[in-house]
Amino acid sequence: MQVIDARGLSCPQPVLLVKKAIDSNGDSEFKVLVDEMAAFENISTLARSSNWTVSHRRQGDSIEMTLRK
Amino acid sequence: MGSRTGVILTGLIIGILALVLTKFGNPPNMGVCIACFLRDTVGGLGLHKAKLVQYIRPEILGIIAGAFVVSLGTGEFRSKGGSSIVTRFVLGFLMMVGMLIFLGCPLRVALRLGAGDLNALIGFLGLFAGVGAGTYFLRSGFSLGKASVMPKWTGAVMPVLALVLIVLFFAVPSLFIFSAEGPGSQHAPALLSLAAGLIIGVMAQRSRFCMAGGIRDLLLFRNFNLILGFLVIILVTLAGSLLSGSFKLGFNAQPIAHTEAVWNFLGLALAGWCAALLGGCPLRQLVLTAQGNTDSAITVLGLVIGAAVAHRFSIAASAKGVPVFGQYAVVVGLVIVLAISIIPHFRSLSVRGSETHAGN
Fold first, then answer.
1. Does B139 touch chain A (CB under 8 A)?
2. In a domain, B359, yes or no
3. Based on the structure, what is the number of domains in chain B?
């Protein structure tokens, strides 16, 4: 499964990376690692507006998000 | 993108607080302005000698303190940094130069627009173009790189410095310089300013409020959340200025503004471009600094030194217009930002080229 490591990137790069993955029509499921609540919220908003589901779990200082079509 | 309700609420509160602060003494159409207030604070510290714009603005310190405390409370405070710090400093510096040519940050664009100042409409078009240019390069893969996690105390340095400055400002005001006339002499009671700053800091941290981000999200994702904040501030200011009778539609004789359209446009184009590459407007940089982001702290230091240099070397505009050095600075600034935007592109091309060569 594709894993996008968006930790440490400034706004809006985490969302841009996820948008690219969503628009690529590739995997129907991928993971994203983020370390900012703002990035987490923005990715969730983008994914839901594209009809993807989002689940997540905390991993120390990071959040591992799983996006499914 | 922020949450829509949070952003609208933050816009509403910033708009109202700006009106209140102006009513109680802040300069006209300048209830809250991050660029102007950082510049005044730099002057208050004596780092530039422009006599009309020297005052430690408690709003700025309050914004940092408010966002610091709330991010500690929510567990969002995290020390990180180390991504292209010198480039960030330069972009912060140039962002300030652009804003001091227009005479205001993106927040003041909204305040000036709401009060009928049409020069700000030209400025807004420039801001839109600048953020658009930056967004284009972001979409093409521009990145300042990844920040890394740093020891917790390092992220607290700037917020603690702001707290110390608040204490000194109230306890030993004789340390600082206070303008006797001009915009620097116009200010609301210090405690009111501090309280307003604290509230804005808390709200902006929670809602991820960002004036440049509004334009960027609109262009990138067709997302209107952040730009709604911009609109709400304009509407609140419009309502307030109509009610108080201070609304004045037009270009001429607007408070703390000049009518040089080309420079209003290019100044904010420069600022908007920098803001897009940096990932946020000056207000957002203050908030991120407060939550431990040392990359943003470096950006704020770039803004600070930019303000000092702009006033030391006759770059900053005034109501009289844009000095010739200011015009040079904007053009040179735009060339530098263009170079910063495209150099990584060429580098990645050459890396790809050499890989191909090696493959052959």
1. yes
2. no
3. 1
